[in-house]
Amino acid sequence: MKILSIETSCDETGISILDCKGGLKKPSFKVLANNLNSQIKIHAPYGGVYPALAKREHLKNLPILLEKTLKETKIKKFDLICVTYGPGLEPALWTGIVFAKELAKKWNVPLIGVNHMEGHILSVFGKNKGTFTIPKIQFPTLSLLVSGGHTELVLAKEWMKYKIIGETLDDAAGEAFDKVARMLELPYPGGPEISKLAEKARKNLLDTLPLSAQKFSTENFLCPSSTLLPRLPEAIHLRKLINKNGEQSSQGVRSATGARFQQFSSKKIAYPEKISSPFLLPRPMLHSKNFDFSFSGLKTASLYLIRDLKKENPNILKNDDIKIAIAKEFEDAVVETLVYKTKKAIEKYGAKTIIVAGGVSGNKHLQKEMKNMVGKKTELLFPTKDLSTDNSVMIGIVGYFRYLQKGGKLPKTPKIKAQGGLRL
Questions:
Q1: Are strands 151-158 and 28-38 parallel, antiparallel or unpaired?
Q2: Which residues of the chain, if any, have pLDDT below 70?
Q3: Which residues pair with 20 in a beta bridge?
Q4: Does domain 2-128+384-405 have CATH number 3.30.420.40?
Q5: Res 216: pLDDT
Q6: What is the DSSP-derived secondary structure letter of residue 124?
Q7: What is the 3-state secondary structure of 293-362?
Q8: Which of 33, 136, 224, 257 has its CA 20 to 30 A from that of 143?
Q9: What is the CATH T-level fold of the domain 167-381, as seen in this structure?
Q10: Is residue 97 classed as helix, strand or coil in its secondary structure?
Q11: Which of 229, 243, 209 shows the shortest CA–CA distance to 280?
């Protein structure tokens, strides 16, 4: 069957045409056309996505993308139209829904709404062109969905039946990346920029510290004093950079004021990260008894750290060494938290297949640490780079599954409404 899929949940406008067959037992797909328009350049001056601007761009781009997509395939008849109806920015969602309804009515084609987060789960099997199948995998699956709007751990004992076992209580991981990047005066989107700097840090001397520093571990320790890292050459080097006169600061290099640094040693984490930064940021909710996340405290700790450094030298962020050190410590904190929580969930629920999807799933350090934690005995799946961010291919996959689940029986006038807070 031929499916037209539409995605407008945030700042990407996507339209795809998929040829789907095989049913639920042996589903296979051929991407006949796949077009995407990103609004990153439009929102970059504001450091984030503005819903009104996103809506305007979707309204402008949808007809253009549809015309382009139809010309590429020359298909005139479709069996199904599917569209994202949540979660996401409601003004943006409505543009896609209204557009899809108009097409369904004009072409007399059934229409089905798709949960964007389910799309991310199944995105790990997709391709942006060519053919692909959904292979048989071992259940239960555990999906870590990480993006600018969501951070969730989702358990599934079979496709289309999901249970959220953990989620962020405040900021999503991707959102925290973007906000801390803004604090570091990095361009939008900030996540990739932080990762670039963090990767530089891992390649330089900041990762070659004395063994005593690597073994450092503390619990409920209020922010370190200037004597915490007195002999580390990297810390001393950065102290000199902080002081605007080039002299060693009496304050020293310290972590965020008031931030608590929870223990993360080899006793509690199977993949201890070397504590090789002169800055220490908290690993939020690392040892809570649930699988929830919280990144607002980490974001605030980063804010206080940068604020205090600027007090000693207002131009501190003009120095790349300082930015690199903070970026690495922040990324380490986020990744360690995500990986550790996932590890504990795997142990509790006996997950056989691990899925990491969403925009942040493309983070190289997260991928590396997830692979180290999971090992070779458990299947670990990531989407391709093109399908890690929002796209319409994943919406088409889910639309096909849901259509089959309903036996192909859909109402002629479906009551699809935008639901910004839609859950799995």
A1: unpaired
A2: 205-277
A3: 29
A4: yes
A5: 35
A6: G
A7: ECCHHHHHHHHHHHHHHHHHCCCHHHCHHHHHHHHHHHHHHHHHHHHHHHHHHHHHHCCCEEEEECHHHH
A8: 33
A9: Nucleotidyltransferase; domain 5 (3.30.420)
A10: helix
A11: 229
In one letter, which amino acid is 245?
N
The position carrying tokens 């089905």 is: 112
The answer to whether residues 371 and 361 touch, using CB atoms and an 8 Å cutoff, is no
Predicted confidence at residue 206, as pLDDT, reads: 45
pLDDT at 204: 78
CA distances from 186 to 183, 259, 319, 331, 358 (A): 8, 23, 13, 14, 22
The residue type of 34 is N
Look at phi and psi of residue 408 and say left if phi exceeds 0, alpha if psi is from -120 to 50, else beta: left
In sequence order, what are the residues at sequence separation of 6 or more whose Cβ sits closer than 8 angstroms to the Cβ of residue 162?
Answer: 118, 121, 154, 155, 156, 424
Q: Do domains 2-128+384-405 and 167-381 have the same CATH topology?
A: yes
Instruction: Using the CB atoms, write b or e for 361-398: b if 16+ within 10 Å.
Output: bbbebbeebbeebbeeeeebbbbeebbbbbbbbbbbbb
Map out the domains of the chain as residue ranges.
Answer: 2-128+384-405, 167-381
